[in-house]
Amino acid sequence: MVDRPNKPSAIAPAASAPQPTVDIADDNSSITATLPSGENVTVLLHGATVTSWKSGPGAEKKENLWVSEKAVLDGSKPVRGGIPLVFPIFGAPPANHATSKLPQHGFARNLRWEYLGKSTSESTTSGDAGTGPTDNSVKLDFGLYSANLTDEQQDQWPYDFGLVYSVTLSRDTLQTMLNVRNEGQLGFDFQMLLHTYFRIGDIGSTAITGLSGVTYTDKVLNATEHAQAENAVRIAGETDRVYKRIPQSTTSIVEGDKPRFDVVRDNLPDTVVWNPFKEKAAAMADFAPDGDYVHMVCVEAGYVSDWVRLEPGDTWEGGQRLRSLL
Ligand SMILES: O=P(O)(O)OC[C@H]1O[C@@H](O)[C@H](O)[C@@H](O)[C@@H]1O
Fold it and tell me: pTM of the entire structure?
């Protein structure tokens, strides 16, 4: 043995607390970020679709999002579950409009996005300054540009744009924000929506609050307009409603009498409430198991009752903050 007179007596302690980790899947299909406390989020590059978000107080984290067992994750179809990102058109495009040739819900959920990188931050949550527990957050950024569209898609929507989608995970919160930049010479109109599929215990005991008095278009009733009379929206059959220009920023999903999720909208005036219910769920090839419509509800924050007009050089930003109350 070689004698080392200057051998250190002890390994110096780590300079800082544990940091969030970010892992890229072996096949480059998805990115997973994990906080030191165990919460995690996975984003599939196809559509920049969030496909898993787990949180909760114990060591065993709980899944907050619903994803169909038959969801297609290989990039050949939009994902049935998680948070598909709808852009630049919500639903079926109107006739005689710049978006008329696009597929339902646009192209963003059906193209591979670029992973742009991560950033992390730390803050002290409670106690005297510097002594409370450290709260970490990690932000993943994804990009999609007009150059990523196929020639056919560029013909269908001939505008130059840059999208940056930021997914930020903190202890009980997931924030998803979209930044849209007009990089061309022509102004364009767009809609966007965050098509979140929430995992719930039972649709029969679930209510959605925060929509009282709001006018909605009922897509199940021939797109007729109604005002939300009851305080809570309950789902007992196929439901497909576009709640428009909502004055309050928070919509909540309540299970029994316990709040389960808060959806806080940022610069997004509208919310779609969707559940296909028994027959429509059974008719969808990628919805499985058939009976799982009882375990999901879509509460989709968006800008869909009108168009966002973006002139050359301008940017627009909007998104949501989801809070899981476990
Ligand atoms: O089957 P898709 O294209 O993913 O759309 C699912 C649902 O998405 C909702 O946002 C729409 O309001 C519904 O009308 C639609 O059925």
Answer: 0.93
> Is the separation of the CB atoms in 67 and 57 below 8 Å?
no
Paired strand residues for 255:
206, 258
Closest listed residue to residue 239, CA positions, set 202, 211, 198, 280: 280
- The answer to whether residue 260 sits within a structural domain is yes
Check if 219 has its Cβ closer than 6 Å to any atom of ligand 1: yes
Q: What's 244's domain CATH number? A: 2.70.98.10
ipTM, two decimals, is: 0.99
Output the CA 33–ligand 1 centroid distance in Å.
Answer: 28
- Structurally, the chain folds into a number of domains equal to 1
pLDDT at 17: 79
User: Is residue 300, in this structure, part of any structural domain at all?
Assistant: yes
69 is catalytic: no
Give the residue whose CA is nearest to atom 12 of ligand 1: 240
Catalytic residue flag (residue 195): yes
Q: Which atom of ligand 1 is nearest to the CA of 109?
A: 4
Does some domain include residue 283? yes
Domain that holds residue 299: 21-324
